[in-house]
Amino acid sequence: MPKFIIQGQKPLQGEITVGGAKNAALKIIPAAILSEGAIIVKNTPDIEDVKRLLEIFEDLGGTTERNGDQLILRMEQINKTTIEAKFANKLRSSIMFVAPLLARTGEVMFPHPGGCVIGAGLRPIDLFIDSFQALGAKIEYKDSYYHISAKRLKGCSYFFTTVSATGTESFIMAAVLAEGTSIIKNCAMEPEIVALAEHLNKCGAKITGAGTPTIIIEGVESLTGGEIEIIPDRIEAGTFAILAAAARAPLMIKRCRPDHLESLLTIFKKLGINFEQGEDWLKIIEVPKILPAYNLKTHEYPGFPTDLQSPFTVLMTQATGTSIIHETIYDRRLLFTDMLTQMGANVTMCDPHRVVIQGPTPLRGRALTSPDLRAGISMIIAGAIAKGTTEIDNIYQIERGYEKIDERLKAIGLDIKRAE
Ligand code: EPU
């Protein structure tokens, strides 16, 4: 199995460019099913999760053409309405195909999706099922597959009991071709949801309110083809900013959207980290000699993203004083801190949602296994600031979401090798 080998404590500096947002691409690809016309997707990240979704798209009868970062997706005719277990087991985002398949064909079969182990057991899909039911679909579960059918979905009023990014996006995709109007409340407000709604509107959908807690979707008969440029990945940009802070590296982060990182940048200001920002760039300039500790609580957007919690936790091992990290969204996302302890950090787990860090502590390189995407990239940050060699196994988990990460980090000075 390939692994990354990092020699730590090399000075980092220079420029790094952010790719297209994984969590936007993972919705735009399934959404292409909603229309018979071609969907042109620009700035598509070349990451494993995108490859897996394209496999599903083709299995359902679609064609895909990739030219650099441009994708052309066509789903003129849907050949099958089952998302096979061999695909669904690999990633949770396979569930994003359910709503568009249901909306366009009136039926869909799929097993409970697999994916990153960051919540207890299998991550739930009750909100998806519940919202399809609210839109008038019939649901059955037999032979390990959900069978969902509805001749045509019917618009409805729906309240999300839990704020869910993919739940909101799934509802939007189901309701765009429904009969009548849907009003959804307590929606997630992530920029990726706004991007999806704007794209669908350009293809003929009638969605208002995306980016606010209430979204209204007036159903239409059909959608046309269209073109979209994927927004920059705010989590990747934030990860690079945290790497720069942890390594005390002057770093220019290009092609990003600092306005999507307000929570992180507000905390950076409080910590005394000096940075400059423009519309599409962020420059980390200097980190104070004594970096103060900080109590972090993750929150739905625009609060601090759970996807940046693990990199920030690594940063706090270098802060002076006591930090409490409170992960409110997932109950397994702090388990990786055990690896930081093995590297020399002083981390005490209070319960699955909270750790206490006493810092600063120097880190030592270790042989580690990446448990999931965000913990994996955090291991790279820890390896970059640790003394000695860090080996990271199971890097598929990292390459699921970060394109050519070794090459890009090498270009800013990190001593990282990909060993096959
Ligand atoms: N939840 C339910 N029932 C459901 C769906 C979700 O209870 O049917 C719960 C989850 O267990 C969690 C909370 O709702 O406690 C929020 O989860 P959400 O549904 O928002 O997560 P998601 O939509 O599955 C997306 C991103 C995640 C990111 C979260 C942030 C995608 C493909 N995934 O997940 O990204 O952490 O939003 O809320 O957009 C990642 O990129 O590493 C990643 C995990």
CATH architecture of the largest domain: Alpha-beta prism
- Mean of residue pLDDT values: 96
Approximate helicity band: 25-40%
CATH top level class name of the largest domain: Alpha Beta
Summarize the structure.
The protein is of the alpha+beta class. The protein is 30% helix and 25% strand.
Task: Walk me through this protein's architecture.
- There is one protein chain.
- By secondary structure, the chain is of the alpha+beta class.
- The chain contains 14 helices and 23 strands.
- The strands form 6 sheets. It has a 4-stranded mixed beta sheet with strand order 21-22-1-23. Strands 2-14-16-15 form a 4-stranded mixed beta sheet, covered by helices on one side. A 4-stranded mixed beta sheet has the order 4-5-3-13.
- Bound molecules: uridine-diphosphate-2(N-acetylglucosaminyl) butyric acid.
- Uridine-diphosphate-2(N-acetylglucosaminyl) butyric acid is lined by residues 22-23, 26, 93, 116, 119, 123-128, 162, 164-167, 188, 306-307, 329, 373-374, 401.
- Uridine-diphosphate-2(N-acetylglucosaminyl) butyric acid binds next to helix 1, helix 5, helix 6 and helix 12.
Topology:
Elements: E1 3-7, E2 14-17, H1 22-31, E3 39-42, H2 48-59, E4 63-67, E5 70-74, H3 85-88, H4 98-105, E6 107-110, H5 126-134, E7 138-142, E8 145-149, E9 157-159, H6 165-175, E10 181-185, H7 191-202, E11 206-208, E12 215-218, E13 226-229, H8 234-246, E14 251-254, H9 262-271, E15 274-277, E16 281-286, E17 296-297, H10 309-316, E18 321-326, H11 337-342, E19 346-351, E20 354-359, E21 367-369, H12 373-385, E22 389-393, H13 396-399, H14 405-410, E23 415-419
Parallel strand pairs: 2-14, 3-13, 9-10, 17-18, 21-22
Antiparallel strand pairs: 1-22, 1-23, 3-5, 4-5, 6-8, 7-8, 10-12, 11-12, 14-16, 15-16, 18-20, 19-20
The structure holds uridine-diphosphate-2(N-acetylglucosaminyl) butyric acid (EPU).
The site of uridine-diphosphate-2(N-acetylglucosaminyl) butyric acid has 24 residues, from helix 1, helix 5, helix 6 and helix 12.
